[in-house]
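Exercise 7.
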Amino acid sequence: MKNSIIGLFLLVISFQMNSQTIELPDTFISLNYEYLEALEIENEPLRVKKLEETVLNYNNKAISDLCDTDKDVVNVSFYVDNCNIIASYDKNGKIIKTIEKYDNVRLPLSVMQAIAKQYPDFGIIEDVYVVKYQSNSNTVRKEYKVKIKSKDEILTVKTNEKGDFI
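Solution. The predicted structure, written as tokens, is:
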């Protein structure tokens, strides 16, 4: 009996000696994870991504002081190089909605292909990328307003991110 207890004790000690400690990376929990997931930031042009990350990382501790009730909303504007976002935050710092506008961003391949197919003799002059996010319905609407030109004509067309004309 004594030998089996000693054997069990040695077995437990050997498992502890051979065990590994795995350190997990820092976990980031965001109040605005829904905004992050809805926008699919990793697929956005770099300057769009940077401004959206600024909205996500905004130090919103002072917002609660500006709000009297839980229904109050504070609008914060962010501007960088022909890009702007107006984000509405609630008392706790959660993003309620955003309206985003970016001038002359890199168009997705699907948008460029749709325009080239529909308007083969036209070239792209400029574009405006508009994003509207609503947290209550967790919806994102992305539109591209693209000005195109042929020899004789200038048109403005609208598409979504898939290249479907609106």
